[in-house]
């Protein structure tokens, strides 16, 4: 058979076969690479997921909205003067994380794992029944003039007093505190480093998922759903 007489790939529909196979192989390979990286990060950090996307500006300018932050289990490589694996700002003047003293921790507010975790700096560690007003930064307690006027003082239990670098008050004070003093069991881990803007991809996926879920709920219940 001469070269001109041989059937071409398009004659029997085989042209797309190798292309589809390469495409599927690329997808599987990429997914495998992502999974491998995730498993390696988990092995190092001891936390899953080891990367979190920042949704708010409460830690500006040191950690910004849209950053992707690597989180490590707090007991791993804990700094000097650590309490339950966390170095608080008042005990770590020479222990600087994200441009200020003290560890930045990720925690479940009031231990509720169903809510969005908070990423704020650990400022103080308090003990159950402690009057910690005199140890507090007067600028971060709001209008309270003494322990009696300060929310969560005396401390209801052992835990950390936390604060966003860009926030005026501690998380534990005010008429609607973000959380009680953060028990060690509520701490997910400590923030170690950040990648600017890369978290926007994750936030975009989350927003798309919320919109999809909201639309599904509207269709199912015939009600109006507000999407945050």
From TrEMBL:
TM helices/strands, residue ranges: 20-44
Protein origin, superkingdom: Archaea
GO molecular function: serine-type endopeptidase activity
Protein's cellular compartments: Membrane
Keywords for this protein: Membrane, Transmembrane, Transmembrane helix
InterPro entries: LexA/Signal_pep-like_sf, Peptidase_S26, Peptidase_S26B
Cellular component GO terms, alphabetical: membrane
Predominant cellular place of this UniProt entry's protein: membrane
GO biological process: signal peptide processing
Protein's name according to its UniProt entry: S26 family signal peptidase
């Amino acid at each position: 058979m001469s070269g001109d007489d041989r059937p071409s790939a398009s004659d029997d529909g085989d042209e797309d076969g190798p292309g589809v196979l390469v495409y599927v192989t690329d997808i599987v390979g990429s997914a495998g690479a992502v999974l491998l990286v995730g498993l390696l990060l988990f092995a190092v950090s001891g936390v899953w997921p080891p990367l979190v996307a920042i949704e708010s500006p409460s830690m500006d300018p040191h950690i910004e909205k849209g950053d992707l932050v690597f989180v490590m289990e707090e007991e791993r490589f804990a700094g000097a003067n650590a309490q339950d694996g966390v170095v608080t700002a008042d005990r770590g003047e020479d222990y600087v994380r994200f441009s200020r003293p003290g560890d930045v921790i990720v925690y479940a507010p009031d231990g509720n794992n169903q809510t969005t975790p908070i990423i704020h700096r650990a400022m103080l560690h308090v003990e159950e029944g402690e009057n910690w007003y005199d140890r507090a930064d007067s600028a971060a307690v709001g209008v309270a003039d003494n322990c009696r006027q300060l929310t969560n003082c005396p401390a209801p239990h052992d835990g950390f007093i936390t604060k966003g670098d860009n926030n005026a008050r501690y998380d534990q004070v005010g008429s609607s505190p973000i959380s009680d003093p953060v028990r060690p069991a509520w701490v997910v881990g400590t923030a170690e480093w950040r990648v600017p803007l890369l978290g926007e991809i994750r936030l975009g996926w989350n927003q798309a998922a919320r919109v999809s879920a909201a639309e599904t709920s509207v269709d199912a219940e015939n009600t109006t759903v507000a999407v945050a």
